[in-house]
């Protein structure tokens, strides 16, 4: 009980200092809990949607997949006779044929795409009774003819649509127009999909290309018949293995698995950044308790003198840490829920609708947050607590402070150097690896080892690095600058730990900046070297035939190249199979993409019954020019194709691609199975580049789902995409940097308290308040620049190593983004200035006489 009382007294005696550390715990726990609540809410949203849209039992084509559109661009379908058969099965209350396609684009009368901008699909189909599970018509009526359409309310609100407006639907079977006659609202949250409904005959004709076919059949069970039993009955009626028959749960599970990988990426990426924030927070907590222990040296000595044991002293500090962890974690759990709501609002503004009605806080979420916060805080406080227990009564009463074990410091330094050396060796091994998959594991080990090594060796580096920074920056400030330097050097362990917190975040920023810049530079270099086409047309969906025709009839073009991804299984001469498919293109593609070959000529691959393979495939399967590969086309026949060329896979464009001609593909694929173009290329006639570019853009205007780009546009878009990704990562890393700033604030605040008497004496002999504040600000700047210098140097080393690995995938250019690196370094100085504002202000307000009288 005495230990608890002492701990409580000390905890509340240092409320301000504890509050700063509590903020670090709060932010870290909030990020973890916010991530869990956000992803759980997304799961709940999708679970409710999939459960509401799935019938008791669903029948679909045997090979149909919910997330897969066949290569011909039309959904897999089955004859309407299956519906009549299904109705005969025992236990069927009702059955209804349905049509659904996600390979469509819907535009309004102004040619604006009605689809979501966040990747959610546009879904077109027929209106059925099953849709009443998840939708209700809130305005107008259901469509009844070929010129009528109904749209979901979310899309109508977002794009200001109303009854009577005309929509154009673009599918591989052609374009067709219809006027809005009804608006239907979701009964559950719609995550962002745009949905349009037609009558059954129109949906069959326009989406499937023929009437009398359905993509699936929705079956409702009779009273007292379970879904499992109904599935058995339907399977027996249709014949086992003939069609895919699923219960409501199985359909929902399949749909859920389609979005599961996307959800996992979001979840684990955000948890990774939360882990970084926790790591940075550890340094703040260690610093806080180290300085609190140092300030209570005499008090600890008195406690030891009157009979307190080392364990009791140790326990007292750990109890304070537990109180801090509990306090910060409880607030963090609450803040995490608020963060999740904020993320939902952001996602909604980007097009992914998430409702707070589905807000999901599982019982495990606060438990995980509390455990993490408390355990991390107690572990961080363990070393200061252990040092407090080692203070001898006599040394403490003499105000000798915590023991400064030079031998222990030397051992730590040696351990840090060994770990850093081992990490550097791992980075070198990664940079010289022959395979990216092998090198990535070594790279990860190198990053971890060098990071830990730099953290441990930081106090040793502080002396030299701070002196160099001070020589460059602080000499101009005269005696005040020299005092700031001495203060930063006074406790190298504290300076090292404070700088390490900032180092971690900036190391990751520098690493990702180097990788991102190198990716852009490599891709740009590869484009300049390899791409001969003047224009590139592509979009999120395959290029429909009518858009292809519009491109081919554009004036000013010397040629247009079609490029199709074809599903096929290859069998090499060694008997091994590979189902990653082949690429069918026009012969002009050999000019549009100047692929280097290690054997043969690429143009020969577009001859009769010929193809090319990549050098990696050729090496792995011992394939050479003149060999014959067996190619089984999906839903087509099997061909024997002769290897006419082997392309060099030392590239980032079309790496590993296997080319054949469109004529060869058509020979072995039925006409209704030929895929639309994945991408198209064009070359302008000599001297007509500008005119052809303008004409091509005009020709493709009716199809806003596709982008027309010249090489300059393509490079800029690549740069913008990488930039957007990096900005998102930097935003998440900002949390770690905020915690690091709190660490600097805490260190300076405690340092000011520790030097209260010294500050009073300096003020008494003539140091002005302005000079005092400047001294503290300069000390903060030096500490921040120390951490920035280590972090940026370490991060550039990581980034350069990562680029060497990426070079194995064709990204051969190392580009250091010096403006970003220099900007971050200068920004770190301002971070130091900002962190020093409050400590400097408080120091300047000290009463001189009271400060001198402080014991």
From TrEMBL:
UniProt xrefs under Pfam families: FtsX, MacB_PCD
Domain MacB-like periplasmic core, first and last residues per copy: 19-236, 498-694
Keyword terms of this UniProt record: Cell membrane, Membrane, Transmembrane, Transmembrane helix
Membrane topology (UniProt): Multi-pass membrane protein
UniProt region (Disordered), positions on chain: 57-80
Location of the protein in the cell: Cell membrane
Segments forming domain ABC3 transporter permease C-terminal: 273-393, 732-847
Residue stretches spanning the membrane: 268-294, 317-343, 363-385, 410-431, 443-474, 495-515, 728-753, 778-798, 818-841
Family statement: Belongs to the ABC-4 integral membrane protein family.
Name the UniProt record assigns to this protein: FtsX-like permease family protein
């Amino acid at each position: 009980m005495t230990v608890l009382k002492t701990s409580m007294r000390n905890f509340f005696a240092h409320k301000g200092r504890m509050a700063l550390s509590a903020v670090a715990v709060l932010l870290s726990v909030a990020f973890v809990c916010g991530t869990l609540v956000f992803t759980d809410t997304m799961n709940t949203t999708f679970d409710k949607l999939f459960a509401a849209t799935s019938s008791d039992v669903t029948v679909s084509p045997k090979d149909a997949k919910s997330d897969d559109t066949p290569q011909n661009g039309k959904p897999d379908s089955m004859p309407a006779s299956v519906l009549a058969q299904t109705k005969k099965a025992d236990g069927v209350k009702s059955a209804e044929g349905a049509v659904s396609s996600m390979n469509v684009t819907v535009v309004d009368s102004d040619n604006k795409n009605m689809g979501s901008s966040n990747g959610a699909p546009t879904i077109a189909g027929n209106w059925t009774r099953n849709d009443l599970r998840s939708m209700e018509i809130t305005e107008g009526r259901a469509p009844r003819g070929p010129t009528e359409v109904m749209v979901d309310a979310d899309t109508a609100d977002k794009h200001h649509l109303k009854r009577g407006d005309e929509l154009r639907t673009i599918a591989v079977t052609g374009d067709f127009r219809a006027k809005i006659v009804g608006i239907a609202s979701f009964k559950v949250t719609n995550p962002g999909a745009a949905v349009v409904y037609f009558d059954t005959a129109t949906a069959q004709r326009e989406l499937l290309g023929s009437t009398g076919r359905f993509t699936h059949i929705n079956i409702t069970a009779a009273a007292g018949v379970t879904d499992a039993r109904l599935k058995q009955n339907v399977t027996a009626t249709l014949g086992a293995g003939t069609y895919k028959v699923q219960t409501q749960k199985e359909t929902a599970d399949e749909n859920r698995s389609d979005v599961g990988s996307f959800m996992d990426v979001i979840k684990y990426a955000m948890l990774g950044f939360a882990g970084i924030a926790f790591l940075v927070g550890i340094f703040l907590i260690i610093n806080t308790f180290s300085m609190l222990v140092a300030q209570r040296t005499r008090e600890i000595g008195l406690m030891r003198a009157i009979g307190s044991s080392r364990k009791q002293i140790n326990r007292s500090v750990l109890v304070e840490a537990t109180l801090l962890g509990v306090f910060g974690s409880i607030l963090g759990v609450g803040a995490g829920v608020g963060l999740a709501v904020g993320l939902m609002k952001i996602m909604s503004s980007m097009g992914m609708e998430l409702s707070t009605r589905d807000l999901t806080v599982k019982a495990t979420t606060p438990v995980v947050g509390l455990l993490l916060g408390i355990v991390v805080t107690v572990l961080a406080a363990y070393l200061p607590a252990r040092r407090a227990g080692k203070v001898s009564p006599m040394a403490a009463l003499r105000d000798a402070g915590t023991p400064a074990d030079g031998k222990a410091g030397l051992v730590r330094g040696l351990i840090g150097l060994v770990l850093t050396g081992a990490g550097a060796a791992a980075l070198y091994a990664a940079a010289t690896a022959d395979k990216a998959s092998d090198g990535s594991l070594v790279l990860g080990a190198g990053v971890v080892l060098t990071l830990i090594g730099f953290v441990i060796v930081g106090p040793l580096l502080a002396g030299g690095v701070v002196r160099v920074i001070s020589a460059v920056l602080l000499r101009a400030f005269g005696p005040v600058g020299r005092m700031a330097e001495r203060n930063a050097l006074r406790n190298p362990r504290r300076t090292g730990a404070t700088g390490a917190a900032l180092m971690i975040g900036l190391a990751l920023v520098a690493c990702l900046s180097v990788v991102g810049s190198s990716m852009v530079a490599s891709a740009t270099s590869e484009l300049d070297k390899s791409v001969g086409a003047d224009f590139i047309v592509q979009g999120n969906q395959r290029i429909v035939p009518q858009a292809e025709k519009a491109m081919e009839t554009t004036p000013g073009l010397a040629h247009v190249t079609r490029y199709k991804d074809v599903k096929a299984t290859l069998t090499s001469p060694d008997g091994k199979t590979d189902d990653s498919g082949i690429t069918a293109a026009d012969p002009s593609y050999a000019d549009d993409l100047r692929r280097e070959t290690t054997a043969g000529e690429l143009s020969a691959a577009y001859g009769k019954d010929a193809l090319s393979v990549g050098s990696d495939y050729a090496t792995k399967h011992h394939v050479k020019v003149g060999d014959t590969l067996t190619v089984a086309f999906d839903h087509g026949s099997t061909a024997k194709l002769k290897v006419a060329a082997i392309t060099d896979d030392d590239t980032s464009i079309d790496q590993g691609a296997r080319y054949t001609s469109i004529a060869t593909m058509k020979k072995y694929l039925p006409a209704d199975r030929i895929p639309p173009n994945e991408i198209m290329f064009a070359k302008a006639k000599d001297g007509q580049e500008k005119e052809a570019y303008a004409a091509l853009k005009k020709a493709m205007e009716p199809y806003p789902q596709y982008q027309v780009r010249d090489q300059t546009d393509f490079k800029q878009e690549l740069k913008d995409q990488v930039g957007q990704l990096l900005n998102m990562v930097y935003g998440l890393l900002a949390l770690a940097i905020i915690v690091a700033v709190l660490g600097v604030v805490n260190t300076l605040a405690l340092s000011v308290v520790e030097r209260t008497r010294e500050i009073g004496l300096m003020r008494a002999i003539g140091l002005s308040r302005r000079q005092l504040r400047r001294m503290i600000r300069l000390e903060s700047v030096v500490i921040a620049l120390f951490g920035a210098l280590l972090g940026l140097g370490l991060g550039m080393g990581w980034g350069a190593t990562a680029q060497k690995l990426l070079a194995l995938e064709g990204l051969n250019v190392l580009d250091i983004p010096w403006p970003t690196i220099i900007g971050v370094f200068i920004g770190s100085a301002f971070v130091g200035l900002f962190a020093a504002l409050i400590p400097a202000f408080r120091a300047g307000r000290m009463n001189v006489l009271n400060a001198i009288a402080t014991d």
